[in-house]
Design a protein that fits this description.
The complex is a heterodimer of chains A (108) and B (115). By secondary structure, chain A is an all-beta fold. Chain A contains no helices and 11 strands. Chain A starts with a strand and ends with a strand. Chain A is globular and about 40 Å long. Chain B has 115 residues and is mostly beta strands. In chain B, the strands form 3 sheets. In chain B, strands 2, 4, 5, 6, 9, 12 and 13 form a 7-stranded mixed sheet that branches. In chain B, strands 1-3-8-7 form a 4-stranded antiparallel sheet, with no helix packed on it. Chain B has a two-stranded antiparallel sheet with strand order 10-11. Chain B is globular. Chain B starts with a strand and ends with a strand. The chains are: A mainly beta (108), B mainly beta (115).
């Protein structure tokens, strides 16, 4: 099956700093999503982005499908951004394969 | 609030118990999913229901039994579980179209502890 690798596995930032999270995948996909999981376990979808670039406030994402990677940018980070960020990719209409995630800690 | 609710939020059960997890989606979607999230492991897809028909069973042990009575409700029946089944169980839904599936929306999860 498809392999998904996320980097870095852990990231510690001071409030106000910027960061870039990366997701590499091993095969062509027709679905790519970024999620944020808060400390209570709730997964919130950030972007549906199988290709191209999207922005939502301080967050933006870019997927280069031909090179099989996606990037999530977080600018001016806040303590509420802490949690685990997952990249998930899909080969079929509905099946998503998740990466292991990046644990982000933003200190005040 | 994602439009997907799960009950109970926490569950402790013995290995001989039978319990059920419930998921309800209020988004009008036609596909629902069960995922398992164990410590230090990626989310694992367990089951997929498309228009109430099970379309995916990802080699899940028979002690987990899903049920989808309609497109808004999904259950996961549990019996004779093992301690290694302790995990966060997440339900999700999405809308499948001829162009494929789009964003999956997740419930808050049920944190299960098997003693």
């Amino acid at each position: 099956g498809i392999q998904v690798e996320q980097s870095p596995p852990d990231l510690i930032l001071q409030e106000g700093a910027n960061s870039t999270l990366r997701c590499n995948f091993s095969d062509s996909v027709n679905n790519l999503q970024w999620f944020h999981q808060n400390p209570w376990g709730q997964l919130i979808n950030l972007f549906y982005i199988p290709s191209g670039t999207k922005q939502n406030g301080r967050l933006s994402a870019t997927t280069v499908a031909t090179e099989r990677y996606s990037l999530l940018y977080i600018s001016s980070s806040q303590t509420t951004d802490s949690g685990v960020y997952f990249c998930a990719v899909g080969e079929s209409n509905y099946k998503l394969t998740f990466g292991k995630g990046t644990l982000l800690t933003v200190n005040p | 609030e994602t439009g997907v609710t799960q009950t109970p939020r926490h569950l402790v059960m013995g290995m001989t118990n039978k319990k059920s997890l419930k998921c309800e989606q209020h988004l009008g979607h036609n596909a629902m999913y069960w995922y398992k999230q164990s410590a230090k492991k990626p989310l694992e897809l367990m089951f997929v229901y498309n228009f109430k028909e099970q379309t995916e069973n990802n080699s899940v042990p028979s002690r987990f039994s899903p049920e989808c009575p309609n497109s808004s409700h999904l259950f996961l029946h549990l019996h004779t579980l093992q301690p290694e089944d302790s995990a966060l169980y997440l339900c999700a839904s999405s809308q499948l179209t001829s162009g494929g599936a789009k964003t999956q929306y997740f419930g808050p999860g049920t944190r299960l502890l098997v003693l």
